Design the sequence.
């Protein structure tokens, strides 16, 4: 038996991987993180036990995983987005390792990828930014030394800030000295869900726009000049000198 940590994707039920969907449809036990996992990703399951873990603590979740293990039943443990980002799977894996229970991670489409997609933008452009910093705004979980927003902002890389929309004013204050007040910002609420909303602006005006929109949670803040850049070099990937010569078969 195996515990499969499965990324459900950002919201659109079609954005789960084929492997994740197959496992959800075949595992006899499903545990899903209810708040951000759309119910439709569970469509077609044949599990005898389906538990929303939104209200359970770690001990209760591990107890359910242990029960399944004792019965030799595979578990689909479904998390939102990609489970390896802010998914709290690390602590579950640590317990599974102590208990000798095997597990596997099935990656998923992250909120960052979904937001870039709905904005129709590439997050890495030649000469503009070749780095994306995925981070969060620190409230309950403190940030390790050197990872405060102002420290990260010094790189002026494209930034994706999770769990921060309620603190947009403070985020703007931390970022503006490094990115400049005219730096573009996009805030996307529930990217890829039917009620998706987005607000775009600059560090100068985004806080007011977000407050006016009423967005308070499940929104990602994307910051960086890539968001409106038009003047950038073509990549070398498709440059004529980089294309491989056509191989023609020698006559037999
Ligand atoms: C606990 S984290 C989970 C991240 C997720 N594991 C991922 O890979 O994207 C939750 C935060 O991710 C962001 N988020 C998750 N899903 C989102 C979506 N569909 N649209 C916008 N932001 C989203 C929000 O910042 C939200 O507060």
Sequence:
């Amino acid at each position: 038996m195996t515990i499969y940590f499965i990324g459900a994707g950002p919201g659109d039920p079609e954005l789960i991987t084929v492997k994740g969907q197959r496992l959800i449809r075949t595992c006899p036990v499903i545990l899903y993180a209810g708040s951000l996992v759309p119910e439709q990703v569970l469509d077609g399951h044949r599990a005898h036990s389906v538990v929303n873990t939104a209200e359970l603590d770690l001990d209760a979740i591990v107890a359910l995983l242990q029960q399944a293990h004792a019965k030799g039943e595979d578990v689909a443990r479904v998390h939102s987005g990609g489970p390896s980002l802010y998914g709290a799977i690390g602590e579950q894996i640590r317990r599974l390792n102590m208990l000798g229970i095997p597990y596997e991670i099935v990656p998923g489409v992250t909120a960052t990828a979904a937001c870039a997609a709905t904005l129709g933008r590439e997050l890495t452009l030649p000469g503009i930014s070749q780095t994306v910093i995925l981070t969060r705004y620190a409230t309950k979980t403190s940030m390790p030394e050197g990872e405060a927003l102002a420290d990260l902002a010094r790189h002026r890389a494209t930034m994706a800030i999770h769990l921060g929309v309620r603190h947009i004013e403070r985020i703007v204050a931390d970022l503006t000295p490094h990115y400049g007040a005219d730096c573009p910002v996009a805030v996307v609420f529930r990217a890829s869900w039917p009620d998706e909303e987005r607000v775009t602006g600059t560090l100068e005006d985004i806080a007011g726009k977000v407050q006016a929109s009423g967005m308070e949670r499940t929104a990602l803040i994307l910051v960086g000049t890539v968001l409106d850049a038009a003047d950038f070099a073509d990549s070398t990937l498709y440059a004529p000198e980089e294309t491989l010569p056509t191989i023609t078969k020698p006559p037999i």
Q: What stands out?
A: Residues 10-11, 36, 80-82, 85-87, 110-111, 114-115, 162-163, 188, 190-192, 218-220 surround S-adenosylmethionine (CB under 6 Å). The longest helix spans residues 58-71.
